[in-house]
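Re: weekly structure request thread

Next one in the queue (111 aa):
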Amino acid sequence: MGDVFSADVSKVKRFADLMREIEAITGDAVGRFEDGARTCLDWVGQDDEMSEQLRPRDRKEREDTTKTGTSLMEAIAGISRALKVNGDVIQGAQNDIHEAIANESNKSGRH
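Done, posted below.
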């Protein structure tokens, strides 16, 4: 006899929901970082030699941090979408099997 496959669709869907929540939290964190970073734009100074040296590095660090956070959010979103699709496929397969069993039971007169 072959291996038995089983899946709890409700758990897959709960995990997908959790990943959507984490995606939203990550997106909010990126937005809060950007807002907070804007309030600190002048920390390197304004018109002196030191500010001219530090400003490009500071800008790059801010941009890289935002890109990293956004990439993380997009990866989590991808996992969430994949879990939803996976849950839908599993649910569809389970529904098809239950329907096939019911059809065969009806043909044979057993319920």
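The radius of gyration is 26 Å. The chain has a mean pLDDT of 90.
Next request, please.
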